[in-house]
Amino acid sequence: MINKGLSYIGIFFLYLLSLFPLWFLYLIANVLFVVMYYLAGYRRKVVQDNLLHSFPEKSDAERAEIEKQFFRYLADLIMETIKGISISEEEITRRIKLIDQHLIDDYFNKGRSIIGAVGHYGNWEMGALRFSQITDQPRIIVYKPLSSNVFNDFFIRVRSRFGATMVSMKNTLRKMAEYRRVVSMTILVSDQTPVRHEAQYFTTFLNQPTAVFLGVEKLAKLMDAVVVFCDIRRIKRGYYTCTFVPIADNPRETAEYEITRLHVAYLEKVIRNEPQYWLWSHKRWKFKPEDNT
């Protein structure tokens, strides 16, 4: 009961903080960066190891600069995510510009459902709110539940307040079966780490053998839905674009794992272009293929 009460208090203060304008939250982000990077050393060893294995060709100085830029952005990302708790639809529209919206409209006009793959790159949380505005057709966002039921329920309400339907990962296939005959758009974060016993497929990603969820590919073939990559790029502080990049128009005609390889390869290209905007503090490489033998 004490932990539950503290969670509600934490949510209350997060909501109050979200009411401040972003320029003020960025002042807090400046301080937060100093605390995380210089004082607390938050997950710096994880970040350094990830960068070392991902970019062995870069010098120590180059990797150190990416690390510093990442922590600057992480502080901004935290504040932008808090702002997303109460941000208006008008402000979301202004801050994330959709590129090639006509591509989405064309697919819907042809009666095709869409599976959108997105990585932990740029501001995927604000992106989720923007995706809710794309169409009046059903919009489904697949999420990984938080360990705290209180915070999990809270963020479901936040992420769905512009009309999206939230579906937990474990219920995805069952829920999506209900939409097989309905034109819809489903968003999945494609670079989550599977639980070890559920890791069915490994590919090379950022120079390392990497376990990859097959959800994008499985759903696309189940629903015969086109696959696009939702390429979220930061333009400047607080402003982004999202470009919809076609990955597979006819998923049932693709070879096994082909769709998975394509969206993983595209994400890697994005990361290599501007690596500071990917979530390097995440323990992405928890195990290797030989661990599952």
TrEMBL record:
Assigned GO CC terms: plasma membrane
GO biological process per UniProt: glycolipid biosynthetic process
Record-linked InterPro entries: LipA_acyltrans (IPR004960)
Transmembrane segments annotated in the record for this chain: 6-39
Location in the cell: Cell inner membrane
GO molecular function: acyltransferase activity
Pfam families the record matches: Lip_A_acyltrans (PF03279)
CDD domains cross-referenced by the UniProt entry: LPLAT_LABLAT-like
Keywords: Acyltransferase, Cell inner membrane, Cell membrane, Membrane, Transferase, Transmembrane, Transmembrane helix
Protein name per Swiss-Prot or TrEMBL: Lauroyl acyltransferase
Native species: Mucilaginibacter hurinus
Taxonomic lineage of the native organism: Bacteria, Pseudomonadati, Bacteroidota, Sphingobacteriia, Sphingobacteriales
